Amino acid sequence: MTDSPPTQTPPTSRGLLRLLSPSGAVPDAQRIARAQAHLQALGFRVELDPQALGRVQRFAGTDTQRVQAVHRAARSKAHVVMATRGGYGLSRILPRLDYALLHEAVTQRRQFWVGHSDFTALQLAMLAQTGAVTHSGPMAAFDFGSDKLDDITVDSFLDAHDGSQEAVGFACSDAPRGLDARGVLWGGNLSLVASLVGTPYLPRVRGVLFLEDVTEHPYCIERMLIQLLQTGVLQRQKAVVLGAFTDYKLTPHDAGFDLNSAVAWLRGQLKPHGVPLITGLPFGHVQTKLTLPHGARCRLVRDGSEAFLVFAHAHG
C-alpha cells in the first residue's frame, strides 16, 4: 500500500483584482505576467484591463483611453484595483475623472484601490474631492512582478486588504520622546504632492504627512519641501514622516550637502511650529514597503526605538 500524496490547501479566495495602467506605458509585459501569477497564488482572481499594456508615446494610452480605464475599474466588480506601474500621466487627466463614480466605488462597494508613485496624484485628488480612503502600497510591475516577493510587502498588503492591519511599526531613532500625533494619514510621492499645490486636487488636511521620492537630488527634494513649507502645508501637519528617497547621485559640487543636510535644515524650520519630522518609514520606490490607508485617521506614537502608525479601524 502506498501513501497518498499530501493534499495542498488552496489559497484563501480573496476576490477579483483588476490591473490597470493609468499613467506610464508598461515597458516589460513579462513582469505583469509574473505579477498575475504571484497574485493568483495569493488567492486573487486577476483580470487585466484591455488598455493595460497599451502605449501612446510614453503613456499607457491616450488621455481619453486612460480616463476610460479608470472609469472601467470603478464600474467593475473588482474587489481590488491595482496600478501596474507609475511613471507619469495621471496629472493630465485629473480634471476629466468622474469623482462621484470613484467615491461610490470606494465608499459604497468598498473597492480597495492601491498603488504609489504617480498613483499619488489620483489618491490625492480622490481624497480632496471626495474624502475617499485609498491605499498607498505595492504595484504589479515593480513589486509583484519580481521573481521573488518581499515578505513584509506581501504581508502588509494582505493585512490591509483583509482588514486585519491595526498598526504598523518601524525603527526610528529621531522621533521625539512622547510623540503622539493624531490626524489623517496622507501624502505619498513628494513630486506629486508639490505639483498639486494651488490646485483643487491637493487635500487641505491637518494630519500625518508621509513622503518619498526617487531619482531626485537632495537639493531638488529640499526645494520641493520648501515649496510645501512656504505655502503653509507642512506647518499645518501634526507630523511629517519621510520614507525612502532613492536612486540619486551626489557630485563634487555638493561639497558635503546631502539628504541628511536637507532633512536637518527642514527639521529646524519646523521646530518652532511644533511639527516633528521623523525618518525611516518603509515606503517608497524600494523593495520593502508597507501598505498604508491613505486618507484614514491614524495615531503616530513612539515606543522605545520604534514608531508606530495606529489606525482607527480596519480598511479592508
TrEMBL record:
<feature type="active site" description="Charge relay system">
    <location>
        <position position="212"/>
    </location>
</feature>
<keyword id="KW-0121">Carboxypeptidase</keyword>
<dbReference type="InterPro" id="IPR040449">
    <property type="entry name" value="Peptidase_S66_N"/>
</dbReference>
<feature type="domain" description="LD-carboxypeptidase N-terminal">
    <location>
        <begin position="19"/>
        <end position="137"/>
    </location>
</feature>
<feature type="active site" description="Nucleophile">
    <location>
        <position position="117"/>
    </location>
</feature>
<dbReference type="InterPro" id="IPR027478">
    <property type="entry name" value="LdcA_N"/>
</dbReference>
<dbReference type="InterPro" id="IPR029062">
    <property type="entry name" value="Class_I_gatase-like"/>
</dbReference>
<dbReference type="InterPro" id="IPR027461">
    <property type="entry name" value="Carboxypeptidase_A_C_sf"/>
</dbReference>
<protein>
    <submittedName>
        <fullName>Murein tetrapeptide carboxypeptidase</fullName>
        <ecNumber>3.4.17.13</ecNumber>
    </submittedName>
</protein>
<dbReference type="GO" id="GO:0008236">
    <property type="term" value="F:serine-type peptidase activity"/>
</dbReference>
<feature type="domain" description="LD-carboxypeptidase C-terminal">
    <location>
        <begin position="182"/>
        <end position="300"/>
    </location>
</feature>
<dbReference type="Pfam" id="PF02016">
    <property type="entry name" value="Peptidase_S66"/>
</dbReference>
<dbReference type="GO" id="GO:0106415">
    <property type="term" value="F:muramoyltetrapeptide carboxypeptidase activity"/>
</dbReference>
<dbReference type="InterPro" id="IPR003507">
    <property type="entry name" value="S66_fam"/>
</dbReference>
<dbReference type="GO" id="GO:0006508">
    <property type="term" value="P:proteolysis"/>
</dbReference>
<dbReference type="InterPro" id="IPR040921">
    <property type="entry name" value="Peptidase_S66C"/>
</dbReference>
<comment type="similarity">
    <text>Belongs to the peptidase S66 family.</text>
</comment>
<keyword id="KW-0645">Protease</keyword>
<dbReference type="Pfam" id="PF17676">
    <property type="entry name" value="Peptidase_S66C"/>
</dbReference>
<feature type="active site" description="Charge relay system">
    <location>
        <position position="285"/>
    </location>
</feature>
<keyword id="KW-0720">Serine protease</keyword>
<keyword id="KW-0378">Hydrolase</keyword>
